[in-house]
Amino acid sequence: MIDIILDTDIGGDIDDALCLALALNSPEISLRAVTTVNTDPPLRARLAARMTHTFGQPEIPVAPGCKAMFDGAPTYCKDINHAVVLTLDDPIPTGDGVDLLIETARRHAGRIVIVGIGPWTNIATAFERAPDLRGCVARLVLMGGQLDPPGPESNIRCDPVAAAYVLNLPVPKLLVPLDVTSRQIYAAADHGDLLRRGLPETNLVRDFLRAFQLGRCQGDPSRAPVLHDPLALALAFDDSLITSRQDLRIDIEHRDGEAVTIAVDGDPNADVVRAVDEERFAELFRKRIAMLDEA
Ligand SMILES: [Ca+2]
After folding, report:
1. Higher pLDDT, 220 or 38
2. How far is the CA of 179 from the centre of ligand 1 (A)?
């Protein structure tokens, strides 16, 4: 069992919700906390808590994290389209996500893996607030960046200062870039098992999926989810899915007004995923998201 903290910007793109559902359905991991980041973290925390409660795991602490970027600048993401799944009866998480991240990492020192699937603001803030985390966190698994060719990617773009800070932390890192994640499509033809399953958990994932399709895709069902974040989580607990990787030194550079990740000379600071077993991951995801292992 791997102790994991999931730091997420659930609420915009659908892959965070699919990733949290995958985490709640994966026996390889023990999900110790969920923290939220990017614009309106309290609303995002309500979405995460709705999911942990519906999946029968209300004991998992959920808390909203940073409201601003690492350098204090305001965040600018306005696209939180999943809120329609909430009801007045849903829990409202309180507390501070960064404090929760710090306390959870200390409680599971030496074992804890932080999976960062939003901008890396909470992670950077936690390490700055609590330098001892350098000795507590076993590994960071980070979705972000695009290397081949270097190009814009949302988690880096939404907080490049945090990204540069996190890349320089002396903690082992698995970097899962857009080059690899953008090939993992959850095609509409694969949704059948989920849509037919009829459990409270799968119905909630279905509702998140509908909210995403209506909110971000203007109802176009052909706009299939891309499984950026679920892939990062799966690689955190199943290393054998990685078919190609490279130790690289990754820096943040600004090109044409965009912050991008770029491989440079120097001591490696990240284990970078270059290719995965796409078929096996797709099968794992399709079964687990529909909870078919429990059928
Ligand atoms: Ca995300």
Report:
1. 38
2. 15
